[in-house]
Amino acid sequence: MAITIDWGTRIISVPKADTLLVQSVPTEIRQLDLDAFRLELKSLEDDAAGMPFPVTHNHVSPITVGGVTLARVVEILNGYTVTFEDGQYAVNLVGANSNVGDVVNVNQVSIRSANSAGLTFSEQINDQSFIGAAVYVNSNSGLSGTSFPRGTPTSPVNNLTDALSIADIRSLQNVILTGFITANGTHILDYHSFEAGAGASNVILLSGASTVNSSFNRLILVGAQNGLSRISNCILGVTGLGGFTEAEGRIVDSIINTVAGITQYTSGAGCLLDNCSFIAPDSPQIEFNANGKGFGMRSCTGNLIITNQTISEELELNFAGARVEIAPSCTAGTLNISGNATVVDNSGVGCTVVDNTLDVNQNTINEGVQKASLLIPHTTNL
């Protein structure tokens, strides 16, 4: 549907679908951008059907006086009236001073005008509504769309496509996420920062999205990384959804969760796990997929298995309380293992394991793992 004009009766009809939903509960509230509204009217006036009739409105563009930009004015003229599609909802008139509220044909729709002699407009003021220079996403209660104020804390979007579009329009790099989103091959996460909003189970399922020079903080990540990133205070892998693969960059203060499947680190571009925990009772695997190049660990804890290291590469693996098993599929390279750990060397011919560790008590390992596991939310909340 679209805005229409009955030229005989001079009634301008505004469909509900042409207004922006800004609140659905407890009361439905929608928004009409008066600048977009008057542009549609001008388009209808230029049509063959509308050209013989008087103009529908007068428009005064925003005027800057003394460094202050006064808002635009839209005035309905020549006996035209406005009818909003009937229903129990309210419409906020935004973006201009107008007389639309004075020429409305009364029905169940509540019209809210924001006219003011001092009404000003500034795109900079709109930008300041994106607190923390961030776009806000809530897949549970947000709404679709890219028009302001969508993407602000009080009006989050419900999908990643709109969030990235708003970020591009506003030149914002930060995204605050509440809920669950899937980042597929159509999404470019490059050079953006993603952080958890409210709640404990805020998940990004990486399914083909580019992640070059991106960062993730306090989120649950599942799927395949696709470009060098910084990951901090995250949980990698969720039972029922899968593990975290193709790691590149630096992963700090994060938990590698035991999942049904393999937690796989296959990047040749380099990956450092710094102060990360591997969660029991099952041992997550570091599956090198025949390429352990550039991989390192520092001050990591928990139970883990290293598999399929088959290239001539020297790796530095440091632990702060761990049980580390080297699987028979490791057949090349040198693994320098240091710190506090128990090393179970089942490596194959051709792989050199240098054990420079202090053998710690298994109870110490389990205690550290149990503490880390408390950070994992119940997957039933996802």
Mean pLDDT: 86
Number of domains: 2
Helical percentage: 10-25%
- Radius of gyration, in Å, reads 29 Å
Strand content: 35-45%
Biggest sheet: strands, sense, closure? 19 strands, parallel
Described by the principal axes of the CA atoms, the overall outline is: rod-shaped
Number of separate helices: 4
Give the distance, in angstroms, between the N- and C-terminal Cα atoms: 37 Å
- Structure classification: mainly beta
Poorly predicted residue ranges: none
Count all strands and give the number: 31
Give a quick set of tags describing it:
31 strands, 382 residues, mainly beta, four-stranded mixed beta sheet
Describe the structure concisely for a colleague.
This protein has 382 residues and is mostly beta strands. 11% of the residues lie in helices and 38% in strands. The chain has a 19-stranded parallel β-sheet that branches. Strands 3-4-10-12 form a four-stranded mixed β-sheet. A three-stranded mixed β-sheet has the order 1-2-9, with no helix packed on it.
